[in-house]
Design the sequence.
C-alpha cells in the first residue's frame, strides 16, 4: 500500500490516462489469455447453457470477452464507473452486440444499480478489486454474496502483495527474467506512468486477508484456483442451501 490521496477516479476518468491504458492493453493482454480462459473455465455452466453474469469494474470487457467466447449463450452485465472505459468497452465489444449491457456502478460507494439482479449465478472481477480500500473489499464480497443465487460463484483475478521481502524479491527476480524490459520500465516511468503505478498499488494487499473477507461473507469452496507470483484467481461459492 502507498500513502497519499486516493487518485483512482482521476486516473480512470481521465481521457488521456484511459487512452494510454487502452493503447498499451494489447501488449499486456498477450500474457493473460490463459488466465482469462481459466477464469471462464472455472464457471460451473454447460457449454451451451444460457446464463447471465456480472463483471465488476469491467473496464473494456477483457474478462467478459473470455466468458462470452467460452459460453456462446451467456449474457454479460458489465459494471463500470468510468464513462471513458465504458465508451472504449462498447467499441471493443461491438462484435458481441445483444449479449452485453453496461451499468454505471461505483464499487467504492456500494450502491448496487437496480439493473443488477439479486440472484445472478456468477459474478466475476478482474484487475479491479485492488483499487478498493480494505473495508470496501470486505463489504463488496458480502454484497456479492447477497447478489448471488444460492450455489452461485464469484471469481476474482487480481494482483496481490506480500509482507515478506524475501518472497517479494523472488517474485521480482522471476518477473524480471520473464520480461527483460520490466526493470527498465520500473526505473524510467514517465510522470503519468508513476501516477498510474501509485494508484495501482495504493490499496493492494496480501492474499490472506482477502480470503478471510470471502470467509466472513459466507462463501464456501474458497480456494486460490490459480496463482503465479503476484497474480491470483481466487473465489468461492454461495452455499446452495442456507445453513440450518
Ligand atoms: C485495470 S482496469 C481492469 C479492467 C478489466 N476488468 C480488465 O480486466 O481488463 C481497472 C478497472 O476498474 C475500474 N474501476 C476502478 N475503480 C472503480 C470503482 N470504484 N468502481 C467501478 N469501477 C472501478 C476502472 O475504471 C477500470 O475500468
Sequence:
Amino acid at each position: 500500500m502507498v500513502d497519499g490521496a486516493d487518485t483512482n477516479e482521476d486516473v480512470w476518468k481521465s481521457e488521456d490516462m484511459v487512452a494510454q491504458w487502452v493503447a498499451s492493453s494489447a501488449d499486456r493482454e498477450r500474457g493473460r489469455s490463459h488466465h482469462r480462459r481459466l477464469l471462464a473455465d472455472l464457471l460451473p455452466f454447460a457449454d451451451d447453457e444460457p446464463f447471465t453474469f456480472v463483471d465488476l469494474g469491467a473496464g473494456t470487457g477483457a474478462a467478459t470477452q473470455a466468458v462470452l467466447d467460452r459460453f456462446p449463450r451467456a449474457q454479460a452485465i458489465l459494471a463500470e464507473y468510468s464513462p471513458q472505459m465504458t465508451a472504449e468497452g462498447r467499441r471493443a465489444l461491438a462484435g458481441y452486440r445483444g449479449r452485453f449491457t453496461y451499468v454505471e456502478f461505483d464499487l467504492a460507494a456500494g450502491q448496487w444499480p437496480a439493473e443488477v439482479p439479486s440472484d445472478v449465478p456468477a459474478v466475476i472481477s478482474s484487475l479491479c478489486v485492488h483499487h478498493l480500500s480494505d473495508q470496501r473489499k470486505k463489504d463488496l464480497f458480502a454484497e456479492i454474496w447477497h447478489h448471488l443465487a444460492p450455489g452461485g460463484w464469484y471469481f476474482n483475478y487480481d494482483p496481490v502483495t506480500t509482507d515478506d521481502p524475501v518472497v517479494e524479491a523472488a517474485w521480482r527476480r522471476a518477473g524480471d527474467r520473464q520480461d527483460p524490459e520490466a526493470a527498465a520500465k520500473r526505473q524510467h516511468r514517465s510522470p503519468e506512468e508513476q501516477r498510474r503505478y501509485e494508484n495501482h498499488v495504493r490499496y493492494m494487499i496480501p492474499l490472506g486477508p482477502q480470503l478471510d473477507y470471502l470467509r466472513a461473507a459466507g462463501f464456501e469452496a474458497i480456494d486460490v484456483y490459480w496463482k503465479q507470483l503476484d497474480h491470483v484467481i481466487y473465489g468461492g461459492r454461495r452455499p446452495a442451501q442456507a445453513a440450518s
